[in-house]
Write a structure and sequence with these properties.
Layout: H1 2-21, E1 43-52, E2 62-63, E3 68-73, E4 78-82, E5 88-94, E6 96-103, E7 110-116, E8 120-121, E9 124-126
Length: 130
């Protein structure tokens, strides 16, 4: 009984496919071929860190937490995230022309324009407002 099921399933699948396409190898259709849907817009990953500019040129910068990172791509609107305690952030956005804004109260905001074509690492350094 199981042997019959195994041979029936491929036959039914082939019959269904032929009916769905309204053609078969024995009876080709004159209708134009069905094209696959257009490619889905691919996302790229944007990661990096945000740090505070050192007051002294010899000092190391300090990671900044709670920084808002906004990335707008074309007509897709903006996505937001906030840096963690190590100053690290991550967002995924569609490919295209992007405007990235990094801001935190008490610091000068930073804005960058760039073309997102692949996964990208962007690090930012913010200066305290005087």
């Amino acid at each position: 009984m199981n042997a019959h099921r195994l041979t029936v399933v491929p036959i039914l699948a082939a019959a269904w496919l032929a009916a769905a396409c309204q053609s078969s190898p024995l009876h080709p259709s004159s209708a134009p071929p069905v094209l696959p849907p257009p490619a889905v817009e691919l996302l790229v990953s944007i990661t990096g860190t945000v740090s505070e500019a050192a007051a002294d040129a010899d000092a190391a910068s300090t990671p900044l937490s709670g920084v808002t990172i906004s990335i707008a791509v074309g007509d897709n609107g903006a996505a937001y995230t906030v840096s963690n305690e190590d100053g690290w952030y991550s967002l995924s956005r569609p490919r295209g022309q992007a405007t990235i804004t990094v801001m935190k109260d008490g610091y000068e905001p930073v804005t960058r324009e760039l073309e997102l074509t692949e996964d990208t690492e962007l690090n930012f350094t913010l200066k305290r407002l005087e």
